[in-house]
Design goal:
Number of strands: 11
Number of domains: 1
Strand order of the largest sheet: 6-5-4-3-11-10-9-8-7
Order of helices and strands: EEEHEEEEEEEEH
CATH class: Mainly Beta
Shape: globular
CATH topology: Lipocalin
Helix content: under 10%
């Protein structure tokens, strides 16, 4: 179950039904507005090193009062909000637009380029992509260490490496397998899966984090 933009519940049975759409080039087409439902909070138990576990427990104890997203800073990757995302796809680039957070966006480059060299650490990282059959594989590095992996306070270092595998098994659904690697903070790789539902009658709404962030002093 997910929520509509006016707060009503919506069941998975209401997702559009049909075959997986494809582009003129024959690639799976991820274009559209996608609802993460409750899977936005999916993460599982990340295997933390002792220092990272201590920091995580500290953040839990203080009720995430230092959450950077609560201060209208970018959420980072793989963290997302419960708000929809819009995918805009071309042969050489996929752009992900977020309704929530700070109207964040990601660029997934499909033109064969490599990762940026000597780049300053980035909030959303540097994402390059390629096709593995019908799966869009996205490799992201180059992060700063200022974001949280989720709202509960899982930390990471600048060594974070995120690998996402996007598939679209049918018209109404998109699945994303996400693998986290961070030798500075985790003891092993960690993989989890999110499922999105296509909302063909939705569009992204204006969301101004700074305007809605009215209770920051009480965190």
């Amino acid at each position: 179950m997910a929520l509509t933009q006016n707060g009503d519940s919506i069941t998975d049975e209401e997702a559009p039904v049909g075959p997986t759409p494809r582009t003129a080039e024959g690639k799976v087409d991820f274009s559209g507005v996608w609802d993460p439902g409750f899977s936005f909070a999916t993460l599982g138990d990340v295997p933390l090193q002792p220092w990272a576990e201590e920091l995580y427990q500290e953040r839990r104890a203080n009720l995430s009062k230092d959450d950077p997203e609560a201060r209208c800073l970018p959420a980072g990757v793989p963290r997302i909000s419960p708000f929809p995302q819009k995918f805009v796809q071309t042969p050489d680039l996929v752009v992900i637009l977020d309704e929530g957070n700070v109207h964040s966006y990601r660029q997934l480059f499909l033109d064969g380029r490599g990762h940026l060299e000597n780049s300053v650490p980035l909030w959303m990282g540097d994402s390059i992509a390629h096709w593995d059959g019908d799966t869009l594989v996205v490799d992201t590095t180059g992060f700063n260490d200022l974001t949280w992996v989720n709202g509960r306070g899982i930390p990471h270092t600048e060594q974070l490496h995120v690998i996402e595998r996007y598939t679209r098994p049918d018209l109404g659904h998109m699945e994303v397998e996400i693998t986290l690697e961070d030798p500075g903070a985790y003891t092993a790789r960690h993989t989890f899966v999110r499922t999105f539902t296509l909302r063909p009658d939705w569009e992204l709404l204006e969301y101004v984090c700074n305007e809605f962030n009215v209770d920051i002093e009480h965190l």
